[in-house]
Amino acid sequence: MEKSEKLEAYYDKESPFKKGIALLRKLAAQSDCFEDFKWNFPVYTVNNKNVFGICRFKEHFGIWFFNGVFLSDPKNILENAQEGKTKGMRHWKFRAVEEIDEQMVLEYMRESIENQKEGKEIEVEKSTGTTIPELLEERLQQSDRLKVAFEAFSPYKQKEFCEYLMEAKQEKTKLRRLEKILPMIEKGIGLNDAYR
Length: 196
Known about the structure:
The protein is α+β, with helices and mostly antiparallel strands. It contains 7 helices and 6 strands. A 6-stranded antiparallel beta sheet has the order 1-2-3-4-6-5. Helix 4 (134-142) crosses helix 5, helix 5 crosses helix 7 and helix 6 (155-166) packs antiparallel against helix 7. Residues 22-113 form the YdhG-like domain.
C-alpha cells in the first residue's frame, strides 16, 4: 500500500476521534509541511525533518511535536510524551473535537515549523547498548529459537523489552511481564508495535 493510501486509511478509519483528527489534518494542511506516513501515523515534515504528527489512541487523540521542548507553550498544555524517556517530544492531548482551539493549534504548529527551520532540535544520544535483564537472559540461553527471535529485533525494540522488565519494581511483576513478552518475542512482535 502506498503512503498516500495509508494516510487516507488512517484518517478514514472509524473511531470516536475521526472528526478530531480530520480537523487537525485540515489545520496541518494550512502549514507549509509535507504530509508523510511514518510509524503507522501521519507525520508532517519540513526539509525531510519530522516536525509534528497527528495521532489517535483509545482514550485521546492529539499532536506530537517532535521537538516540542522548544515551543514557548503559552497555554502550558504540552505534556512530555513519555516522561523520563524522551527529551524533546511533547504531546497535546484532546478528548473531544470541541476542545480544539483552531487558532491556538495553528500557532503551535507554525512555531514548531519555524523552530525546525532555525535548526532547533534535540541531539540524539547514541546508545551504548542494551543491558539484558537477568531473567530474560536466562530464558534466551535456554532456547535457541527465542534467542534468534530476540536478536532479529532492532536494538531499539530489544531495548524496549529490556526496559519494560527493568522498570518493574517487584519480582512478581517482573515475572508476569516476562511471561507476557516471551510469546511476543517468539512471534516477532515488538512490545509497542500496536501503537506504531
